[in-house]
Amino acid sequence: MNTHSTPPKLSIRNLYKIFGSQPDAMLEHVRSGTGKQELLSKHRHVLGLEDINVDMHAGQITVIMGLSGSGKSTLIRHLNRLIEPTAGEILLDGADVTLLTPDELRTLRQTRMSMVFQKFALLPHRTVLDNTALAPTIRREPSAGARDNARRWLERVGLKGYEQHYPHQLSGGMQQRVGIARALCSEAEIMLMDEAFSALDPIIRTDMQALLLELQRELHKTIVFITHDLDEALRLADHLVVLKDGRIVQQGEPQEIILKPADEYIENFVRDINRARVLRVRSVMAPHDGAHDRDAIGANATLEEALERAQGAMDHVFNVTDEEGVVGSLAMTELLKALVPRHARQAKP
Fold it and tell me: Of 127, 141, 162, 191, which residue has the fewest beta carbons closer than 10 angstroms?
């Protein structure tokens, strides 16, 4: 259900992508029910995306995730038309990106959408400062202003003092920070991040996630983030889209997907996560019952924090609060039920 009062920034409508020599001819087969495996075995065409519909709202992080071959990288590359769709619409502020002329598309990529790649994609012969200032340089903006802006973003991502280094002199995490600074220096309102952190070591990856969330709280960019890692998706996503074989299996607010998986595939996907660290109090609280002389806990606290605060007391009940005051209550008995996956709760003894 769309709870937003404003139109989406980006909207994907009935998007299909078929790879092969006759994609348009194959489209009718797919619309008539031919699946990915049958299309490949009988017609020698690959179904990349099938009837994708997603709304992406301004100031939010939309995470698109799935296993290898699910179509997630194919999908993000449609947004700036690095890949052309077989059918469908990609609406940016209501205007169809698929109808842009080459000049209009070039302007879109230079001014409105930036991209951060998995392999960093830094120019090896340019300094960190020149790499960061790449977008305004291509737009032929005054050099002094572009470089000053690049220095500001490099400092913001923790790379002050490295301006004259070259990419090969930096670690992988530092190179990816340059990639983020470059995207921010473009001043684009939309950031496309394709497996941006997956090549990094786990500790550095966690640091990069924290940096992205910190920047997002300040900048409120519209971010489309691709990952195959569920923990990363749950940490970053305002809106989560799960793909399988080029189709959307489920999408929505991450907490809702964990608590109400659409099918067995999603249940298996979320089965092994640490629910206490991921689920928020707001997702499992009950309506406020009127009592006020209780311990209070924030609506966005994790269930793990609630467990620690209760100190093992099973009869403990919290009042749940946000900036508007008391918004609900949370009994420890209900919290414990939420920690058990649905399939386990429904299993017969």
Answer: 141
